[in-house]
Backbone:
């Protein structure tokens, strides 16, 4: 299995995207590397296993990649947290604030059993808005949500700290300082 430092080297930094001064952390190079992806999933799976995960939830779109892979690794189900209008059944949803405006997440509430221990998995934690909204939405559906795992944390943006303040344990494989 590759080390976290070896995985970190597979993350490409794209300067000035989406705007000048931003250092975009691109996981495309990590997920395109077979051994890297496999090792990343193994690293993400251990905290979820330790937390007693009964299902994994991932947010559209890159959370689907890592979340579904972790669910497969653990032999448990995956709950997709979708953008609005993507599910063919009656959903419950939550609106949440973005830097400029709002967005919405939706789930099929029948995909969750009351009290089910659900761990959130996503590629990156930045400001924390999406993950906080997902945790609240999953809880509204009856899930117990106390853990979240991420490939990358951008600690300068404060998202992991916000999740911890909201009672979630946060695990991230790697952190990158700066934007």
Residues:
């Amino acid at each position: 299995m590759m080390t976290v430092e070896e995985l970190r080297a597979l993350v490409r930094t794209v300067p000035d995207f989406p705007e000048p001064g931003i250092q975009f952390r691109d996981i495309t190079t990590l997920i395109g590397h077979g051994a890297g992806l496999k090792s990343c999933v193994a690293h993400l799976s251990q905290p979820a296993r330790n937390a007693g995960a009964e299902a994994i939830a991932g947010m559209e779109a890159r959370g689907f990649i890592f979340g579904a892979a972790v669910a497969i690794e653990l032999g448990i189900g995956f709950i997709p947290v979708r953008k609005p209008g993507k599910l063919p059944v009656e959903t419950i949803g939550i609106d949440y604030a973005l830097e400029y405006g709002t967005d919405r997440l939706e789930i099929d509430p029948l995909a969750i059993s009351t009290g089910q221990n659900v761990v959130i998995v996503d590629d990156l934690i930045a400001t924390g808005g999406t993950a906080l909204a997902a945790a609240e939405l999953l809880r509204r559906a009856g899930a117990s949500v106390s853990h979240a795992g991420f490939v990358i944390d951008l600690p300068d943006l404060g998202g992991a700290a916000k999740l911890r303040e909201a009672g979630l344990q946060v695990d991230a494989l790697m952190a990158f300082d700066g934007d």
User: Anything to note?
Assistant: The chain has one domain: 44-175. The two ends are 29 Å apart (CA to CA). The mean pLDDT is 96.
